[in-house]
Amino acid sequence: ARDGAAPRTRGSRAVSRADAGRYICRATNKHGSAVRSIVVTVEYEPSIGEMGCPAQRLWVEGTPVELACAASGNPPPRVACAKLGESQDPLPVSSNVTRAHAGTYQCRATNTHGSALRNVTVAVEYSPAAVSLRVLPSANVSRGASFSVECRAEGLPTPTYGWALPPAPNLRFAADNRSVAVAGAAAANRGLYTCTATNRHGRRAGSVMVRVDESRLVLLASLGSLGAVTAVGLAAAGGYYLKSTACKKGEYNVRDAEGSSEAACLHQQRHDRGEIYGIQLTQP
After folding, report:
1. What angle do CA 89, 94, 97 make, to 5 degrees?
2. Nearest to 7 by CA among 21, 27, 33
3. CB-based contacts of 235: which residues, under 8 Å, 6+ apart?
4. Distance CA 241, CA 229 (A)
5. pLDDT digit string (tens) for 116-144?
């Protein structure tokens, strides 16, 4: 009988793992009985279940490598895990996790009765890294033009983004806050644009300098001033020409009128801007 259960007669059947345990064997005849205790061990091939070896693992960069999988079997199996596509050597226990450790691993449990396999997918989380900023179309912006600043960063979980930049009313942030658009660049938009990427493992920042170029505006202003000066000069020259022709015409008119009954007198007066001639005619 097994552990006080009902006695069983001798027989044969297929062994299962449930047959393991302590048995009491009792021999009896009319003169008495003899008792003996026997421990039965059942050996079987390995198996790996979800409880002892989850199919999904999450590691953090910089922590010690640990990929332990529990397997059942008798004798107790030896378990070794190796990354698929690489050497089948087990992971070194002393190494620290890097992003290169992410991937699928195969764990093998082995004893004298056989082996069992199980695949484990490992994801590696890490703090934000490689923060980069890009100004489109260029970090040298013409006044009045539009531009955008984009921020990119690696990290797991996916980072969130924050900005430190010159305050201005013409800023528009993207829904995921990864970029900022500026419409109609002005002097207030020049300066340092800093993006900070953050997740639960840390943060990292990057910066870019944006310059608002007003050289075209200055050139246009200069051209405008030059045009104004030119216009004044042309007006003065035109006035001089008109004055000259008027004087000549007036002189001709005086000569034409001189000696006629219409000519009364020719006046010449001094003025700050020169001499002024006037003709006074009489009615016939």
Report:
1. 85
2. 27
3. none
4. 18
5. 999 999 999 999 999 999 999 999 999 99
Task: Please give the model's pTM, rounded to 2 decimal places.
Answer: 0.61
The closest of 177, 179, 178, 176 to 146, measured between CA atoms, is 179
Does the domain formed by 46-126 have CATH 3.30.450.70? Answer: no
For 133-213, CATH number out of 2.60.40.10, 3.20.20.70, 2.60.40.1220, 1.10.10.10 equals: 2.60.40.10
Q: Closest Cα to residue 81, out of 104, 59, 100?
A: 104
What is the distance between the alpha carbons of residues 227 and 242, in angstroms, rounded to a whole number? 22
- CA 165, 169, 172, 173 dihedral sign is positive
- 239 DSSP assignment: H
Q: Are strands 114-136 and 103-111 parallel, antiparallel or unpaired?
A: antiparallel
Of 70, 9, 75, nearest to 43 by C-alpha is 75
| Cα Rg of the chain, angstroms | 51
Residue 279 near residue 250 (C-beta atoms within 8 A): yes
**Alpha carbon distance 146, 135 (integer Å):** 11
Residue 54's nearest CA partner among 123, 126, 127 is 123
C-alpha span between 166 and 191 (Å, rounded): 6
In the DSSP assignment, the letter for residue 2 is B
* CA-CA-CA-CA dihedral for 18, 22, 28, 32, to nearest 10: -160
pLDDT tens digit sequence for 216-238: 544 444 444 445 444 444 444 44
Number of C-beta neighbours around residue 243 at 10 A: 14
